[in-house]
Amino acid sequence: MSNLDLHPAPTPCGGREDVTARPVHELLRAKSVPLGESTMVRRLLPSMGRRMIGAWCFVDHYGPDDIADRPGMQVAPHPHMGLQTVSWLHEGEVLHRDSLGSLQTVRPRELGLMTSGRAIAHSEESPREHARLLHGAQLWVALPDADRHRAPMWEHHADLPRVHGGGLDATVILGELDGARSPGTTFTPIVGADVSLPAGASARLPVEPDFEYAALTMSGEAEVDGVRLAPGSLLYLGCGRRELPLRADTDSAFMLLGGEPFEEHLVMWWNFVGRSHEEIAQARSDWTAGSRFGTVHGYAGTRLPAPELPPVPLKPRGRAR
Question: Is residue 196 part of a domain?
Answer without folding.
Answer: yes
